[in-house]
Specification:
The complex is a heterodimer of chains A (277) and B (262). Chain A is an alpha+beta fold and 277 residues long. Helices cover 18% and strands 44% of the residues of chain A. In chain A, a hairpin with a 6-residue loop joins strand 15 and strand 16. The longest helix of chain A has 18 residues. Chain A is flat. With 262 residues, chain B is α+β, with helices and mostly antiparallel strands. Chain B has one domain: Sortase (Sortase, Chain: A, Beta Barrel). Chain B has an eight-stranded mixed beta barrel. Chain B is globular and about 60 Å long. Classes of the chains: A alpha+beta (277), B alpha+beta (262). Strand 4 of chain A pairs antiparallel with strand 1 of chain B, so a sheet runs across the interface.
């Protein structure tokens, strides 16, 4: 079919020119956040032997820090350490990919020993009108269930594990309970799940020491646009356009079929370059 | 792309392409033909992927970029180290001492941020458009919701509100009822400079002036542009237009009015 071939050609040209747009910048940086989830321990955080976070307090989140892709060594020392030679956690080696988004967490393992966990954050676009919620278990506690409005939405989440849900935007009354139970050990607390935002909730602290808490990290700007705007119902408004617009009359006339084919050929050349942004 | 040329001609009204009448006719013909060739639908919007990809392109690296702007499809929910990757030989000796200390904040659940005042009434000078505004979101099929009553306009509540500091506020309504034209059928003939007023809940009205009216083919719907979240503030009034495609029970285009703060 001649006309569709021309149409396809225009699409291909426009697509090629769009892709050829601005020159690619250098390799994009990785983004690294650091969460402190060890109760009652103020620390310094070292990246490749350099003190990056000074007097970093429990329950605080630092970053994101933009770092070139590569391998890094993270170490956590007492707050007054002169260097990173005697870490209380680590050192741990991590690999940051270009454009990657990561959170390093200093936390307690299930048995209550300080450790570090390194999570890759999902920064893919979220479908239109949706938000994403991830729960990460970084507390000295057995496996847990996460309850929303009293009902379990995540079951059997163990230390150092995570689970992600895609949800309609809402404020969720979230609580954490021992797996298989509904009596909260944390919360309930209001957690906002916003459209286009990936909300990451950390359970941290120690069940034995009764200092379990929630920490929240938000990654915004992951929204995507609706797929269209369906504003028509019956075609009743099309008639008036035809009557009011002589140009439309030509296009709509049954005898204009030849013109249609020709029109595409004629306009394609003018059209395609102008579509480029 | 077989998009009608109207979209890329700011300030020109669909019905009055006076300087080039013949070319306009031919272009319109092309648009109509293109619309007929490609299966798009008012009721069933095109595949949601292209706008998503388009939006994904618009980012890059940089210290000041929000974390979320980073393009990253992997999304591995693993608590392990990232997959190995060949490392550039030059490794920074440190995270650049010149770099300021990263922001540190309490990680307790944050309070919900206050919203901009919502819109409640839309009036367009020189027309019969005087419509109640209701908040809408996204249909299960991924398209923007449109209020059922023809005399109501929907505000896309996930995007900026009229009067916001940045981005495009989108109001949309049906162009017709089951039997006749609806108020938004007047959008396509709005002259540049037309005053658009949006009354708001708990805030003074905001006024806009029309700068252009475009037709955008539904099969080439540029969601990232229409629903832009950043950049200069503007108001978009959106409905359906172009030719009614009987087989698809749908119009071929969207009519998009862009208005800037007056």
């Amino acid at each position: 079919m001649r006309t569709s071939l021309f149409t396809a050609g225009a699409v291909a040209i426009a697509a090629a020119l769009t892709l050829a747009g601005p020159a690619q910048a250098a390799e994009p940086n990785a983004q690294l956040s650091v969460l402190h989830g060890v109760p009652e321990l103020t620390v310094d955080v070292w990246v490749n032997g350099e003190r990056t976070l000074d007097d970093f307090a429990p329950g605080t989140l630092a970053g994101p820090l933009a770092l070139p892709a590569g391998d890094y060594e993270l170490a956590i020392t007492a707050a007054d350490a002169a260097d990173a030679s005697a870490p209380v956690i680590g050192p741990v080696k991590v690999t940051l990919a270009a454009s990657g988004n990561y959170t390093a967490v200093a936390n307690l393992d299930a048995a209550g020993k300080p450790t570090a966990n390194f999570f890759t954050n999902d920064v893919a676009q979220i479908g239109p009108g949706k938000g994403k919620l991830t729960v990460r278990h970084t507390a000295a506690a057995p496996a847990v269930d996460v309850l929303a409005g009293g009902s379990p939405v995540i079951s059997g989440l163990a230390n150092a594990k995570e689970k992600t849900l895609t949800l309609d935007p809402a404020t969720v009354s979230a609580a954490v309970a021992a797996a298989g139970t509904t009596a909260p050990v944390i919360g309930p607390a209001d957690v906002a799940v916003a459209e286009g935002t990936h909300t990451i909730v950390y359970a941290w602290g120690s069940l034995a020491d009764k200092n379990l808490k929630l920490a929240v990290q938000n990654i915004e700007g992951l929204h995507s646009a609706p797929a269209g705007v369906p504003g028509g119902r019956s075609g009743a408004a099309a008639g008036s356009e035809t009557a009011g617009d002589p140009a439309a009359m030509v296009g709509l006339g049954a005898a204009g079929l030849l013109l249609l084919a020709g029109g595409i050929v004629l306009t394609r050349r003018q059209l395609a370059p102008r579509r480029i942004r | 792309m077989p998009t009608p040329p109207h979209g890329s001609r700011p300030g020109r009204r669909p019905g009055t392409r006076a300087p080039y009448p013949r070319r306009a006719a031919v272009r319109l013909a092309a648009a109509v033909a293109a619309a007929a060739l490609l299966a798009s639908s008012c009721a069933v919007p095109p595949d949601p992927t292209p706008p998503a990809q388009a939006a994904a392109r618009g980012n890059d690296s940089g210290l000041d970029q929000p974390a979320g702007a980073v393009r990253e499809g992997g999304a591995t929910p693993a608590a392990a180290s990232a997959p190995a990757r060949s490392i550039p030989p030059v490794r920074p000796a440190a995270p650049a001492p010149s770099r300021s200390t990263p922001p540190v904040r309490p990680a307790a659940p944050p309070a919900v941020a206050p919203r901009d005042p919502g819109p409640r009434l839309l009036t367009v000078a020189g027309t019969t458009i005087r419509m109640r505004i209701v908040e809408v979101g996204v249909s299960p099929d991924g398209a923007m919701q449109i209020p059922d009553p023809f005399e109501e306009a929907g505000w896309y509540r996930f995007g900026p509100a009229p009067g916001a500091a940045a981005g495009a506020a989108v109001l949309a309504a049906h162009v017709d009822t089951t039997s006749e034209s609806a108020p938004f059928s007047q959008l396509k003939t709005l002259p540049p400079g037309t005053l658009v007023t949006v009354e708001r809940y708990g805030a003074p009205p905001v006024r806009f002036r029309v700068v252009r009216v475009e037709l955008m083919a539904k099969d080439a719907f540029d969601g990232a542009a229409v629903f832009r979240r950043g950049g200069p503030h503007e108001l978009k009034l959106v409905t359906c237009g172009g030719r009614w495609l009987d087989e698809q029970q749908n119009y071929g285009d969207n009519v998009i009015v862009t208005a800037l703060p007056a």
